């Protein structure tokens, strides 16, 4: 896999070869057993301490090398903006004089004309300094980069002029080892989404994680397909897919109507989408790239590769209020000796349901039946009222949990909005729209 990634990353576009990273996670090891599964080769981010120019197999300290162990370490050459000359210089310096101890040590030991600022920024964003400074210091590293470059240039100039600095009178290695953390500027660390977006800027995709990872519960409940299984659907089938719009190209038809072509990416790969004029007039202004969303539409099988005719795009966190089938609220009375608190909880929850069913919130999503599961020592009782329908908005779910505790309410998925009738059965018309669209 390391050799394949090295070859493909040089020969093809990022969107073509990044799918092999997901293939690594599905590799089955020779020692795999049903009772003891061993699946997935981990691809680790680039690391100044261990990465080579190309992707390479690496083993943890104390790990026995073999075909049933090891990980793939990201190659420095695959980082956007890191040229071959800079990479060779970094690896040569590391091999000759030992690991880099800090950003400042890195800047002092390498020629700034060979390894320039843009390369250093890309290394930081890609996570190559994490083994030295930690992932939480990526923002501090960028903020301190100018200081490090200036300090490195000054030390290099002193060496060329044959001067010695105060620090050089001591054991230089010891000084360098103590200095890095204290030299960094203190700034607020990036959150997870910012860290991943910076990784993508430097590498073209995410390595240390994926923006969709934190939404796996929502995805498993409300998404009906993935990019790597969309081809198994029937022609024109309605679908819901979680992903991010990674490319968005507005176009204009010959009649002057605006529409768009896009690419949606998820953990399984990418799929192309088209947003025809009617849908674009409704959602065009709200489309944002690289943000987790739920894409609602139907299968487009009119081209060589299956795609999506997109009708709606919603914030992934709003999936429950637009794609829910039902809502279940659990009131646990098994350990309650006094029935009064249970009655109060039921009254408060019933009040919330009535209030939310009769407000404007009821128009901002899909109303579902709210069922209350009363858990008792002897038996469970399910209370429901088909006429009491409510939109399971985030606000309502949070208020229910404030009363009953975390995990007391859940929204069941499975609802896939049917494709609109005016978007179906016009295969010839859709093809003409494709042909008549021009870049805008």
- Run of helices and strands: HHHEEEHHHHHHHHHEEEHEEHEHEEHEHE
User: What is the count of distinct domains?
Assistant: 3
Number of helices: 17
Helix content: 25-40%
User: Span between N and C termini?
Assistant: 41 Å
Strand arrangement across the biggest beta sheet: 4-5-6-8-7
Descriptive notes:
With 440 residues, the protein is of the alpha+beta class. It has three domains: 2-203, no CATH class; 215-320 and 420-439, Nucleic acid-binding proteins (OB fold (Dihydrolipoamide Acetyltransferase, E2P)), CATH 2.40.50; 326-412. The protein is 36% helix and 20% strand. It is built from 17 helices and 13 strands. It has helices spanning 2-11, 14-17, 19-24, 84-97, 103-109, 117-126, 130-133, 138-160, 172-178, 180-183, 192-203, 216-222, 277-283, 319-323, 339-357, 394-404, 427-436, and strands spanning 43-44, 56-58, 71-73, 238-252, 258-266, 269-275, 292-300, 307-315, 326-332, 368-375, 380-390, 409-412, 438-439. The strands form three sheets. It has a five-stranded mixed beta barrel with strand order 4-5-6-8-7. Helix 5 runs parallel beside helix 8 (138-160) and helix 6 crosses helix 11. The model is unreliable at 173-182 and 422-436 (pLDDT under 50).
Short structural description:
This protein has 440 residues and is α+β, with helices and mostly antiparallel strands. It has helices at 2-11, 14-17, 19-24, 84-97, 103-109, 117-126, 130-133, 138-160, 172-178, 180-183, 192-203, 216-222, 277-283, 319-323, 339-357, 394-404, 427-436; strands at 43-44, 56-58, 71-73, 238-252, 258-266, 269-275, 292-300, 307-315, 326-332, 368-375, 380-390, 409-412, 438-439.
